Input
Amino acid sequence: MADPWWLIGDRIWAGPDRWLRRSALPMRGPVAAGGDPVEPERLPPGARTLAIDGLILPGLHDAHVHSGLVDLRAVRRGGIASVTDLGSVPAQVAELRRESLTPTSDLPVLELVGAFLTAPGGYPSDRSWAAAGSWREVRSVVDAEIAVAEQAAFGARAVKVAINLEAGPVPTPSVLAAIVAAAQARGLLVIAHAQGAGAVRMALTAGVDVLAHAPWTESLGPDLIRECARQTTWISTLHIHDPRGGGPAWDMVRGNLREFLGHGGILRYGTDLGNGPLPLGINAEEIGALQTLGLSVDELLTAMTGPLASPAAGTGPSRFVAGVAPCVLVNPIGPDDRGVGPLLAQAQVWRR
Output
């Protein structure tokens, strides 16, 4: 294991309302050690340090990526230090995860869910983009336990279930409940692709923890959104709905999200990388769409940092996670800035 040292920055964002001046971030090799930044004067005698200009951020995270459909090395070059893969061929993405944990890797650190869990003949088994093996048909309550165990064996920290009522069969309520129970017994989150009228209600009833997309196919109404805010985290994926062009999907997702956030719902930044011609890296349009909903810079950075499913390995209140490289922004932003998408998109994963 590499010896500890300290990266000193003019400014460090360590979490909400924690805009630190000239502070030292504990490092181990090329990645964060997981501890809280401290004043340089408090460093032990003889500590190894490196001072850099700009704003140091925790490693920025995209919570919705499909590794089999994008160049992950380009994603890291584009400023993303870690990702959650939300559906790929399990053996392939497990190998990518192992490689991503190597200190010299040029991949973003991966966490994964394994294959889509779906009904026989269900989404996305009929999609041309879905590689063979990237979905797993779940045929019964007993099979649900086996399917979850298979994903866990590949290193999944969560499982993903497809509830797409607009694209063929979906798991029955009893199978959905069995998937959730099997995942919870292993300490795994359950993430749902919930699409079509009634899909979000099905996900909530089954006990799902995360929605892979902020809902865009139905207006949920205040009572259901209140339940969502109590039970689930939503992943944004707004750019796939073309916020600039508008339209029914954008209007629907914007209305649902405003109310969800108003009830204190937790939102994570995610882009659904692999779904169309999205930027490989930090997505300025996604950030801009989030700011139109009223998110502050603190709220944006909170949504963009920390793993989705893995327990944070750091200590104290810091958003810096052990094993993930920090990001550096040469032209700093501030807590009261608006329109920060283009600036924030210039952040780079730190690499000495």
Observations:
- Residues 312-316 have pLDDT under 50 and may be disordered.
- The chain is about 25% helix and 20% strand.
- The radius of gyration is 20 Å.
